[in-house]
Specification:
It comes from Planococcus notacanthi. By secondary structure, this protein is mainly α. Helices cover about 85% and strands about 0% of the residues. The longest helix is centred in the last third of the chain and has 44 residues.
Length: about 200
């Protein structure tokens, strides 16, 4: 516990800018562990300051990726993205369903948010509309993780709270995977129906 507290103090010594930049960079480098960054910010800076740093960094990063894809995603050198059948299906589905599914995906910490930003950038969804979606979805996700991680000492001294935290994390992971599978089935069915309608009109 003392080693972790010392590590937290070292992290805090870098200043709040690092707490903003790490979630920001995660949007561009999705292999980075956003869950860990949010947890670290909440532990180092407290619930509310840590939450604001993580949420603002994550939102700005996600929207920056969206804007980059919106501007350059249809350029010739990035055609490999739009030619991918799975991406085409997701783009079509996002354009038809809008806020609801995007919000749910962004709420869950284990959802591949980089793919959500990519697909949203390639779709025709309005810029301000997606910004509001990202702000709302990231608010729920980041606050949940921040609330779980802000009192690190309690995780070591209160086994019941630790068990609840582990249970919440596992449940979020399971719910995310179930939701992904269901959405995937809906995307496939929706795209198949649209393809059939398009063939009928052409014939």
């Amino acid at each position: 516990m003392e080693n972790i507290v010392e590590l937290t103090q070292s992290y805090r010594a870098f200043g709040p800018i690092i707490g903003f930049l790490l979630p920001f960079f995660e949007a561009f480098l999705p292999f980075l562990p956003l869950f860990v960054f949010v947890f670290a910010n909440a532990t180092a800076y407290g619930l509310w300051v840590g939450f604001l740093l993580s949420w603002s960094g994550s939102v700005v990063g996600a929207y920056a990726v969206f804007l980059v894809i919106r501007k350059y995603g249809r350029a010739r050198f990035m055609n490999f993205m739009t030619r991918h059948e799975k991406v085409q299906k997701l783009i079509h589905w996002v354009e038809r369903n809008g806020f609801g599914p995007l919000f749910l995906l962004l709420c869950l910490p284990f959802t591949p948010s980089a793919l959500v930003n990519l697909v949203a950038g390639l779709s025709n969804i309005r810029k301000h509309y997606y910004l509001l979606t990202v702000m709302a979805g990231k608010f729920v996700m980041v606050f949940t993780i921040s609330y779980v991680g802000y009192d690190l000492r309690a995780l070591f001294t209160q086994p019941i709270r630790t068990a609840i935290v582990i249970l919440v994390i596992v449940l979020l992971y399971i719910i995310g995977k179930i939701l992904e599978k269901r959405l995937h089935k809906k995307v496939e069915a929706d795209f198949r129906l649209a393809s059939e309608e398009r063939k009928k009109r052409q014939s």
